[in-house]
Design a protein that fits this description.
It is a single chain. The chain is mainly β. The protein is globular, with a radius of gyration of 23 Å.
Length: about 450
């Protein structure tokens, strides 16, 4: 009798754990599948990539000069510009410095430049305003919370309407006076934010680590609308920024889902996902989308940590093409090309319209200490592709042929990709230094 009872008990326990107890008995809402095509988990194959039919030659847009850098990747759509710069990419001139990275501190956001000031967030949660003409700090404000100032993982900045918006890893969104750092408004949300804010249409878009999008008024800080995705327990440190173009807001979540929302009220226009919900619930695989979405005209390109890069229609979410390319770095999209770095330590040039591969440049292991250090998002400057990272290296690459033209040693490990203002190229390092590349 005892043996029979044990069998019954074990059967009940197995039943409860295999079915999902809360959902089965009605304690949790049944998860509804998102619309859109699901993509199976696939491994990346460079040889298969090369077998794609080449349709067109690489064409870049004309070189442009920018006078300010008010958001990461220079705009809400994250579209790459072919920047004009007066640099031979040889020397590094020290500009200023903040606190460098430690075990529990990371610099994940690019500095900004506006009206001859550099604004940056260092690894000790200090927001610093540095005057480029006077060559000195004008103000510094620490945004960490009392008794909890040793876990500065990310956060970031954006400028709009003469306000410096700060996303804090301590769960706050602040608007600061550009001139003196005075707090104009502050919102406490008690959920860490690791990515920089996106500003568009006088709205501030902030994505928390728990897959919650918050949209505030740039002027008053009033919460205008919000959207929430499914929470994912296994995520990487990085978080992507929100992309905005015209009336479409693209929000990528760490569980692999991504949405097209109305800029006005957050209404879901379309939804899609990299992998099936059943797969996500039964595996511990990282499903993050860590690269920023990039929008050009009606084309939206996203990359995920499961080994997929996808192109969809910005307005409908319908798929144009999909490639077995993993990347957690934002691709550079310019002209008819996508320049992307994959997890095989390769730089790939894809045709924007059909995803066909023009060339694949393999980065030798001696450039990155056997792949110990990562390569950061590529940047187009003076018709050249600039890629930094690895073992303190900067690569100058011919974007038409996929050939390395020059390799320069960096003084330290970089924290973000280079940014260009007034024909000057700047770079921030993990030790907190900011330098001009000459």
């Amino acid at each position: 009798m005892t043996k029979i009872n044990n069998y019954i008990y074990l059967s009940i326990v197995f039943f409860l754990f295999s079915c999902g107890t809360g959902e089965y008995f009605g304690f949790e809402e049944k998860k509804i599948k998102l619309k859109g095509k699901r993509v199976a988990l696939l491994k990346e194959d460079s040889k298969a990539i090369l077998n794609s039919k080449i349709i067109s030659e690489t064409k870049l847009e004309g070189k442009k000069e920018v006078l300010s850098w008010e958001q990461s990747h220079n705009g809400p759509s994250h579209l790459s510009i072919n920047f004009i710069a007066e640099s031979n990419f040889v020397k590094f001139k020290y500009i200023t410095s903040g606190s460098g990275e430690k075990k529990s501190s990371r610099i994940l956001s690019q500095p900004l430049i506006f009206n001859n000031f550099i604004y940056y967030l260092d690894a000790a949660a200090n927001v610093i305003a540095f005057n480029l003409e006077k060559k000195k700090n004008i103000w510094k404000k620490n945004i960490s919370k009392k008794n909890d100032n040793n876990h500065n993982l990310g956060g970031g900045l954006a400028i709009g309407n003469n306000k410096l918006i700060v996303n804090s890893p301590y769960g706050e969104i602040l608007a600061l006076n550009l001139n003196n750092g005075e707090v104009l408004w502050k919102k406490s949300i008690d959920i860490p934010i690791r990515s920089a804010p996106t500003i568009s249409d006088d709205k501030v878009f902030s994505l928390t680590v728990e897959n919650r999008l918050l949209v505030h008024s740039l002027d008053s800080g009033e919460l205008l609308w919000e959207h929430e995705g499914l929470f994912n327990n296994t995520t990487l440190i990085n978080s992507p920024k929100i992309a905005v173009d015209q009336n479409i807001v693209v929000v990528p979540y760490s569980n692999g889902d991504f949405f097209g929302l109305s800029l006005t009220n957050g209404k879901v226009i379309w939804s899609n996902s990299f992998i099936d919900i059943e797969v996500k619930e039964t595996t511990n695989v990282f499903t993050d989308i860590d690269a920023n979405p990039v929008i050009k005209n009606d084309i939206l390109v996203l990359s995920s940590s499961i080994g997929q890069t996808i192109s969809v229609n910005k307005k409908t979410g319908s798929q144009f093409w999909i490639k077995n390319i993993y990347s957690d770095q934002t691709p550079a999209i310019n002209g008819n090309s996508i320049f992307i770095i994959n997890n095989n330590e390769e730089i790939i040039n894809l045709d924007l319209l059909n995803g066909s591969t023009r060339w694949v440049l393999e980065l030798s292991q001696d450039l990155s200490k056997n792949n110990k250090n990562i390569w950061l998002a590529p940047v187009l400057i003076n018709d050249k592709l600039i890629v930094i990272g690895g073992d303190k290296k900067m690569l100058i690459i011919d974007p038409f042929k996929g050939k390395i033209e020059k390799i320069t040693n960096l003084p330290n490990l970089p924290s973000t990709s280079p940014f260009v203002v007034n024909s000057n190229v700047y770079l921030m390092f993990k030790n907190g230094d900011i330098a001009k590349i000459e």
